[in-house]
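Quiz preparation item.
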């Protein structure tokens, strides 16, 4: 798991939630983990396509377009 329970809870609180169920936190963590992993995988692919070993911020930004 990449996203911690406390991080997910803080995101919900900052978004205006007064209370968040454990089930909602687990579902959110699962979805965010998938998104984060996919973004990382696309970023690595872009850096390899550019024949680089280093992933740059521009790779990450391009992965979201």
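Solution:
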């Amino acid at each position: 798991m990449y996203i911690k329970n406390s991080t997910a809870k803080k995101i919900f609180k900052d978004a205006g939630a007064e209370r968040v169920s454990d089930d909602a936190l687990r579902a959110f963590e699962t979805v965010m983990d998938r998104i984060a992993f996919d973004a990382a995988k696309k970023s690595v692919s872009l850096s390899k396509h550019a024949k680089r070993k280093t992933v740059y911020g521009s790779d990450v930004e391009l992965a979201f377009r």
